[in-house]
Design a protein that fits this description.
The chain is of the alpha/beta class. The protein contains eight helices and twelve strands. The protein folds into two domains: about 200 residues, no CATH class; about 55 residues, no CATH class. The strands form three sheets. The protein has a four-stranded mixed sheet. The protein has a four-stranded mixed sheet with strand order 5-6-7-8. It has a four-stranded mixed sheet with strand order 9-11-12-10. The longest helix is centred in the middle third of the chain and has 22 residues.
């Protein structure tokens, strides 16, 4: 189905969130399609910072709602949209196909969105993330903030950034046909972790089980090895001992041990109930 055919779904999805006569949105992100009076639309928001989003017109405005001291009435004063929030919003408006919602970012700062790879994980790699649910959560929290531009020093503005990203993802997903954004993180050693943003909690990128690969291209063990061990049947070849050790250590986290004498090759078989792995 083409974009032209699906455009009405965008209208329905976003207009359902947009301002109807006499109605106010739940939060301080005010959808206003083909918006001719953004300052007036901002008045429909609550007190404090307000974002007015015209997803169809690909425009975004910021205002601050506060009282006019002489009159006591509320005023919407124009403000600057934080650059990170603006970048995140316009990245969403440029999505034209379901594949366009997927992003590949690199720890070295390159990739589809330079600078989106979270800081503070310089000692991690795909294997360490695969074997540690707490690290998955921390990485997912940091990634979601970068994705939405919600890494500001203001809690209200961060909340607005997340709200805007949620509305944008829902609307574009309904229009084009995707449920969320898949993000592939490429670590310094070349290993990859895949995470997904969308759904009920925009503030957390979810780790995708069974999709992590180490620097040598080997599928990494994670929680999926417990539920779907057959997927891990096969041979694993490692170029150095550190990569092999990471794979084995990660497997141990999920109850899978590797027998035999250490080498650069591991073979895993399935006996109908259990995954059995041995050095070759």
């Amino acid at each position: 189905m083409t974009m032209t055919c699906r455009t009405p779904y965008l209208l329905l999805a976003f207009m359902g969130l947009a301002l109807a006569a006499g109605q106010a949105p739940a939060g301080n992100v005010v959808p206003c399609n083909r918006c001719s009076a953004p300052q007036q639309a901002a008045m429909q928001g609550g007190p404090g910072p307000v974002l007015v989003a015209d997803l169809q017109g690909k425009k975004l405005w910021a205002f601050d709602n506060g009282p006019d001291r002489p009159s006591g009435r509320r005023l919407s004063t124009p403000a600057q949209v934080p650059p990170g929030v603006s970048d995140a919003y316009f990245r969403l408006t440029r999505i034209q196909t379901p594949a366009g919602a997927n992003i590949r970012i690199r720890q070295d700062g390159r990739g589809d969105v330079p600078g989106m790879f979270p800081d503070g994980f310089s000692d991690a790699n795909a294997a360490l993330v695969a074997g540690d649910v707490n690290l998955q959560y921390a990485l997912g929290t940091a990634l979601a903030k970068n994705y939405a531009g919600a890494n500001l020093d203001s809690v209200p503005l961060n909340d607005l950034a997340f709200e805007l990203a949620s509305i944008g993802l829902d609307a574009m997903g309904a229009a084009i046909g995707f449920d969320g954004a898949n993000i592939t993180l490429v670590w310094h050693d070349g290993g990859t972790t895949r995470m997904e943003i969308g759904g009920d909690d925009i503030t957390q990128a979810a780790y995708i089980p069974g999709a992590s690969v180490d620097a040598d291209g080997n599928l990494l063990p994670d929680a999926s090895i417990v539920r779907n061990g057959e997927r891990y049947v096969g041979s694993y070849v490692f170029r150095d001992a550190a990569t092999a050790r990471d794979w084995v250590d990660t497997a141990i986290q999920y109850g899978i041990t590797v027998g035999g004498v250490r080498s650069d090759r591991i073979k895993c078989t399935w006996d109908g109930r259990t995954l059995i792995c041995r050095y070759q």
